[in-house]
Amino acid sequence: MQSFQQDCVELALRKFRRGEVDRRTLLAGLAALGVGSFASDEAAAQAARKLVMVNWGGLANQGFGNFYGAPFAAANPGWTVEQDSTGPSAGRIRSMVESGRVTWDLCDSSASSSFLLGRQNLLEKINYDIVKKEDTLPVGFALEYGAAPYSFSSVLCYDSAKFPNGGPTGWKDFWDLQKFPGTRLLRRDATAMLDAAQMALGKDPKNLYPLDIRATVRKVADIRRNAVFWSSGSESEQFLRTGEAVMGIIWHTRATVLHGETNGRIKFIWPQALLQAGIMVIPKGNPGGEGAQRLLASMLHNPEPQVGLLTLLGNGPTNPRAAALVPQDLRWKNPTDPENAREQVVMDGEWWGANYQRANADYVDAITG
């Protein structure tokens, strides 16, 4: 009988870990099996000592696992950190939380999604008693429902061989098809595209928000017939690699790959780039509970792993103490290096969280119509 009870307890715990039952159902089931309330709580706690970090796949799996998951597990005996590359879209997070079957603890998301999902009560608030806010960049990187252990930028990238008299110096040049002829490359998503268009319209980068959605969408529509559009980072590289576009708005991580491949022929610039927070969020009711807050704290507070991620993926550190640890030969491609950061605009995630759905719908209509 005791063996049967143990088997049933193990089965219940496995279902809990997989998200097939929630904590309340688990505790009720354990009680029905004759497991005392203290033992039930202890069993649930043990089951939750695995944290699942979700990213978008590729090298991120290796990077987050090696530089964030492994150090946390080593410093916290009994805990394990598992990487999941399913892709933590806002829709998937919403479905998981609303179904009551949450299996994710920490998700690679965005500032705008953190505001959107947070307002819908689908995320846990960041506990800044555990996650010390002063250890992260102060503007746009420590939010109510998310915090950023890494950064990236949307930059102006161009083929310098096409412009022997000098390349573009900002978004006004990007939109100038007479002075800088050739096909432009933009993303099939309004984020960063409309911000760049607003600067091309002449608005002061230091006072960029709120964006004028109607005017910026119209500005994009002006060059639609001279533009191609990318949906993935690898696709953005390919358009510039093959010469289908001479100039594009792409992620700095992809621009640095092209710069290296072409021995510097394909260049990118930091002035007026959009510096974006790599926000991690915690789904409401995550199985690891407070452990997810502690994992996020370790990602933010320890600068060395952030420098490791820069080395592997090109993502910028967010802990100010990391800047001094970045090797000299990597500083030119680090978006949060002080010299690079001061030339950029920090994207306003709160504005995008409130306006993304409308702005993106209008943008997509403009580029496909």
Task: Provide an overview of this structure.
Its main location: periplasm. InterPro entries: SBP. Keywords: Periplasm, Signal, Transport. This is Extracellular solute-binding protein. Belongs to the bacterial solute-binding protein 1 family. The chain has 369 residues and is an alpha/beta fold. It folds into three domains: 2-46, no CATH class; 49-151 and 277-329, D-Maltodextrin-Binding Protein, domain 2; 152-274 and 347-368, D-Maltodextrin-Binding Protein, domain 2 (3-Layer(aba) Sandwich), CATH 3.40.190.10. The chain has 15 helices and ten strands. The chain has helices at 2-18, 23-32, 37-47, 59-75, 90-99, 111-119, 171-174, 193-200, 213-222, 233-241, 252-261, 290-301, 303-313, 338-341, 349-368, and strands at 50-54, 80-84, 106-108, 142-143, 146-159, 184-187, 227-230, 247-251, 266-281, 345-346. Strands 1, 2, 3, 4, 5, 6, 7, 8, 9 and 10 form a ten-stranded mixed β-sheet that branches. Helix 6 (111-119) crosses helix 15 (349-368). It is globular and about 80 Å long. The chain starts with a helix and ends with a helix. The model has no long low-confidence stretch (mean pLDDT 90).
Overall morphology: globular
The biggest beta sheet, please? 10 strands, mixed
How many domains comprise the coordinates?
A: 3
Number of helices: 15
Structural class: alpha/beta
CATH superfamily of the largest domain: Periplasmic binding protein-like II
Q: Identify low-pLDDT runs.
A: none
Instruction: Measure the end-to-end span.
Output: 68 Å
Percent of residues in helices? 40-55%
CATH architecture of the largest domain: 3-Layer(aba) Sandwich
Question: What value does the Rg take, in angstroms?
Answer: 23 Å
Beta-strand segment tally: 10
Q: Can you write the helix and strand succession as a string?
A: HHHEHEHEHEEHEHHEHEHEHHHEH
Query: What is the CATH third-level topology name of the largest domain?
Result: D-Maltodextrin-Binding Protein, domain 2
How much beta, percentage-wise? 15-25%
CATH structural class of the largest domain: Alpha Beta
Chain-averaged pLDDT: 90
Pfam families: SBP_bac_8
Family: Belongs to the bacterial solute-binding protein 1 family.
Subcellular location: Periplasm
InterPro entries: SBP
